[in-house]
Specification:
3 domains, Beta Polymerase, domain 2, 23 helices, Hydrophobic Seed Protein, 8-stranded mixed beta sheet, binds magnesium ion, single chain, cca-adding enzyme, domain 2, two-stranded parallel sheet, 465 residues, binds adenosine-5'-triphosphate
């Protein structure tokens, strides 16, 4: 309470910890009444509505906030529904039987309806948080006292104006403290407060800027944009586990191509995938560029078609250029094809996970996809039949197709596999018999020789046929 008073006094005097986020003259709050905004209750999930109504009936303020409101105002399908209230987590818990409190430092209530989880957060004031849901105070008492705030506080601590719009269940109006509604209309992504300070506080906001710009097709406003170019290197300080979570959102949300282009434009891509960036810059023939773009396009299309995408395939694709270059280097030193690929996988994965912590269960699969690229060159005898049974076959074959489409020298090999997959048993026998069974277009390149047979090409590899 005391600190609250101190804070408001400091605010009046223009002093205190909030000065950089609280410009002297904050615009007056705008209330957009029901009927003057495009947000309709019919688009809100039943469960979210239940939570909002129950909080409201119990005498608390209750608002829908964040991405859900933003997406609905844009006529898009919201991904999830977050609720903001002046009820404390304990008070929320007392209202809902199906509620658990999570988070040690900053407590959030999760209300569960079947598989749907509605997150309910108490209004928060700004604090030097490194991450959503994390305060920096060590001591629980201080944390509580400092962190809970009013709706206005809660609005100003958010990242972008378009993410700080509140749908009020009491009268169905939208509450806009930061000018988000105008930005929604203008298609503009604007950081709340002073962009450099906000990025310094939490560098992941730079990635979020690009993610929302990519997804919504919004333009990042000048001040928010300029700061990104200056501060991109701050991402080095972000824990690799958080960068993994964020990378999945960047690349597996259905807008990977746009997002990737923006990431490169703002020099953020190299912060996440430095090795790949190196090759993207270095390569004069545009192969790696085409390959990554195609792989991401493929990912977006799969999501559009309701198919699954895996972080393993994404990782394999993003890191293919470093992996294949490293394998090539090892082969030139005399290593066999498969061993070279395996070792290259070791090296590339070890380096990459320091930046973006892809868990082992994914990188193991990515490496299998890479190794399969070597194995797939064996198109004679029983081998192709066995490969067909491999759990990673489908992914590896898709990967091979992408390589071929991107101009790597494997088009004939990919064609062979397509024919093999489509053929009946007799057709497959025929395809896999005979010395010239393979379809590789490369002419006897050493790199296609397999592990354990250094420099001694075998008949069955398409490279030699
Ligand atoms: P989506 O869920 O569609 O990816 P979102 O805007 O809902 O987008 P979330 O990560 O779910 O993003 O966060 C919910 C809200 O919390 C955001 O809209 C924003 O208001 C706030 N928020 C999230 N991350 C941050 C951050 N790093 N800094 C400040 N505010 C944040
Ligand atoms: Mg969200």
């Amino acid at each position: 309470m005391l600190s609250r008073l101190k804070q408001s006094l400091a605010k009046k005097l223009g002093l205190g910890s909030r000065k950089e986020h609280a410009p002297a003259a904050r615009p007056a709050v705008r209330i957009i009444p029901r009927g003057e905004h495009g947000l309709s209750r019919s688009n809100i999930s039943e469960s979210a509505l239940k939570v909002l109504y129950r909080l409201h009936k119990a005498g608390y303020e209750a608002y829908l906030v964040g991405g859900g409101v933003r997406d609905m105002l844009l006529g898009r399908e919201p991904k999830d529904f977050d609720i903001s209230t002046n009820a404390t987590p304990e008070e929320v818990k007392a209202l809902f039987r199906n509620c658990i409190l999570i988070g040690r430092r900053f407590r959030l209530a999760h209300v569960r309806y079947g598989s749907e989880v509605i997150e309910v957060a108490t209004f928060r004031a700004h604090h030097e948080a490194g991450e959503e849901g994390e305060g920096v105070m060590e001591n629980g008492m201080i944390l509580r006292d400092n962190v809970y705030g009013t709706l206005e506080d809660d609005a100003w601590r958010r990242d972008f104006t378009i993410n700080a719009l509140y749908y009020n269940i009491a009268d169905f109006s939208v509450v806009d403290h930061t000018g988000g509604m105008d930005d929604i209309k203008a298609g503009r992504l604007r950081m709340i407060g002073d962009p450099p300070s906000r990025y310094r506080e939490d560098p992941v906001r730079m990635l979020r800027a690009v993610r929302f710009a990519g997804k919504l097709g919004f333009r990042i406003d000048e001040a928010s944009e300029q700061a990104i170019q200056e501060l991109a290197a701050l991402l080095e300080e972000v824990p690799s586990a958080r960068l993994f979570d964020e990378s999945l959102k960047l690349f597996l949300s259905g807008y990977a191509v746009e997002t990737y282009e923006l990431l490169r434009h703002y020099r953020l891509f190299g912060q996440l995938f430095p090795e790949t960036e190196k090759w993207l810059r270095y390569e004069e023939q545009h192969y790696p560029r085409t390959f990554v773009a195609r792989a991401l396009d493929n990912t977006d299309k799969r999501l559009q078609d309701g198919k699954t995408v895996t972080p393993a395939f994404l990782f394999a694709a993003l890191l293919w250029e470093p992996a294949r270059k490293e394998a090539e280097r090892l082969r030139q030193k005399g290593e066999g094809g498969l061993q070279a690929m395996q070792q290259a996988g070791d090296t590339v994965v070890a380096r990459q996970v320091k930046r973006v912590a892809f868990p082992k269960r994914f990188t193991l699969q990515s490496r299998e996809i890479w190794e399969m690229q070597e194995r797939l060159t064996a198109t004679g005898g029983r081998r192709p039949f066995r490969l067909l049974e491999h759990p990673r076959f489908r992914a590896a074959y898709d990967f091979l197709l992408l390589r071929a489409e991107s101009g790597e020298d494997v088009a004939e090999l990919a064609g062979w596999w397509t024919r093999f997959i489509e053929a009946d048993e007799a057709g497959r026998q025929e395809l896999s018999s005979g010395p010239r069974s393979g379809g590789g277009s490369g002419s006897g390149k050493k790199r296609r020789s397999r592990g354990g047979r250094r420099g001694k090409p075998r008949q069955t590899t398409p490279a030699e046929s």
